[in-house]
Amino acid sequence: MSFTLTTPSGFWNPLLWLVFLALFGIIAYLIYSQGNPSYKKDTEQIKPYLSGNPEPTKEKIQVKAGDIYWGFIEALKGYYKVLQAIHTGDMRDYILWYLGVGAIITFILIGGV
C-alpha cells in the first residue's frame, strides 16, 4: 500500500508531512525553551511599550462611528454648516421645504423655463 499521491506537478505523502511537522515542532520547542525565564504573565511585563507614555483607556483609543466619516464631513464642512443652520428638527419645517421645492419644480415644469 503506497501513501504517495503522484500528480503531474509533484507528489504528496502524508507520512513525509508528519515527519516534517514533528521536525518543525521540535525546532519550535527549542526556540521557545530559549526564551527569557524571568518573564511572568500576570505582571507589568505584559503591558505594551508606548515610549514611556501611559497606556490610554480603551474609550480613548476606540474608533467611534463618527470617526469613520470624519474625512467626508471635514471635506464638506461648509455644506454641513449650512445644513445644520437650516436643520431645526421640526417636522413642519420639513413639510414646508418639501412643498416649497415641489412648487418650484412644478413652476419650472409647467412654466417651461
What does this structure look like?
The longest helix has 21 residues, at 91-111. Strands 1-2 form a two-stranded antiparallel sheet. It is mainly alpha-helical. It is built from six helices and two strands. The mean pLDDT is 89.
What's the arrangement of secondary structure elements?
Blueprint: E1 5-7, E2 10-12, H1 14-33, H2 58-61, H3 65-68, H4 70-75, H5 77-86, H6 91-111
Antiparallel strand pairs: 1-2
What descriptors fit this protein?
5% strand, 6 helices
C-alpha geometry: elongated
Mean pLDDT: 89
User: Treating each run of at least 4 consecutive H or I residues as one helix, how many helices?
Assistant: 6
Side-by-side strand order of the widest sheet: 1-2
In short:
This protein is mostly helical and 113 residues long.
